[in-house]
């Protein structure tokens, strides 16, 4: 199985390198160090593995992505949560390039940036790798190897690294689950198509605005109407979270002015009205069908608190939430049982 999980599939081949074994397989490397962020590192093989499964189900070809973890000495490396992950050694004697190389963040990055074994290996493999993605504090290792953020990728202008963005990001924000997932999904989109990338994101519940915007950014295969409908689905699926119309604009990957115009034309109402009505529908259903407290329903439906919910309800329904609940239950048909 072309997938690197938390265990070593070869039980000790610590001198393995990033050499391409056959052209049909994409070699993916993930550089780790003591105290690395498992949240960041774990999503990389997770997304690639899901893409392997979906891609294999759609064709007779085998797995496309082979993901391996690397560290200074190889062997077991502990993350910040004290979970051990098996790695291959950063061996400069047989170093070769990767189709994509990720350098994760975490509290041990500063020490790793002083480890000449890792830095020397990076100097060898970086010029030979198509896409290089530092995540959060992982940039320290690139800088130690003499490569800044602006030179993090030597791929084409369409490389996932550049689409995902490397410059000007806040390391604290970049070191979460979304940043590496976005780059991986762009690679999947390039190699296997936008439908496989979308299905991969959906199965793993990767639905943040930035991720969906990256998947929808290919205007040659996605019309404005499709982008608007996708953003409307996203608003409906995420209305219980503290989201706004600005988030929907990012999901659609359109200018705000164009998005507002196209949304009204395609859906029939403005995005803000659509979000408001979606939340009201969800709130009304919970009031009628459950005994949840008003404050709890408010938080579950994205209203922040009960006072905000009550204000909106009085304005739109001419009833308080409690009055609506009582009325809905009076009008409900009797249970035949």
TrEMBL record:
GO molecular function, one term: sequence-specific DNA binding
Entry annotated with the keyword Kinase: no
Family matches, as Pfam families: HTH_18
Domain HTH araC/xylS-type: 229-327
Record's keyword terms, sorted: DNA-binding, Transcription, Transcription regulation
Residues making up the signal peptide according to the UniProt record: none
InterPro entries in UniProt: AraC_XylS_family_regulators, Class_I_gatase-like, Homeodomain-like_sf, HTH_AraC
SMART domains per UniProt: HTH_ARAC
Spans annotated as Disordered: 149-177
Source species, domain of life: Bacteria
Name of this chain's protein: HTH araC/xylS-type domain-containing protein
Organism: Paraburkholderia phytofirmans OLGA172
């Amino acid at each position: 199985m072309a997938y690197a999980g938390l265990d070593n599939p070869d039980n000790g081949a610590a001198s393995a390198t990033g050499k391409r074994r056959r052209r049909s397989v994409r070699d993916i490397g993930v550089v780790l160090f003591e105290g690395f962020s498992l949240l960041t590192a774990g999503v990389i093989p997770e997304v690639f593995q899901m893409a392997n499964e979906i891609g294999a189900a759609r064709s007779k070809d085998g797995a496309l992505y082979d993901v391996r973890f690397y560290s200074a000495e190889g062997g077991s490396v502990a993350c910040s949560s004290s979970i051990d992950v098996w790695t291959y050694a950063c061996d400069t004697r047989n170093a070769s390039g990767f189709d994509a190389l990720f350098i994760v963040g975490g509290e041990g990055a500063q020490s790793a940036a002083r480890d000449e074994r890792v830095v020397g290996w990076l100097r060898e493999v970086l010029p030979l790798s198509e896409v290089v993605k530092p995540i959060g504090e992982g940039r320290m290792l690139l800088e130690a190897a003499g490569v800044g953020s602006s030179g993090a990728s030597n791929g084409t202008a369409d490389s996932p690294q550049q689409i995902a963005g490397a410059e000007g990001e806040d390391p604290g924000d970049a070191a979460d689950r979304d940043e590496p997932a976005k780059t991986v999904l762009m690679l999947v989109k390039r190699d296997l198509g936008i439908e496989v990338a979308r299905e991969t994101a959906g199965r793993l519940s990767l639905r943040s605005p930035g991720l969906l915007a990256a998947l929808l950014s290919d205007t040659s295969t996605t019309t404005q109407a499709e982008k608007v409908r996708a953003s409307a689905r996203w608003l409906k699926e995420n209305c219980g979270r503290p989201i706004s119309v600005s988030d929907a604009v990012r999901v659609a990957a359109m200018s705000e002015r164009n998005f507002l115009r196209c949304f009204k034309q395609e859906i029939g109402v403005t995005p803000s009205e659509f979000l408001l009505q979606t939340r009201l529908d969800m709130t009304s259903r919970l009031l009628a069908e459950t005994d949840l407290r008003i404050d709890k329903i408010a938080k579950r439906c994205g209203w922040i608190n009960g006072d905000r919910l009550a204000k909106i309800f009085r304005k739109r329904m001419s009833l308080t939430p409690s009055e609506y609940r009582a009325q809905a239950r009076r009008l409900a048909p009797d249970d035949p049982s």
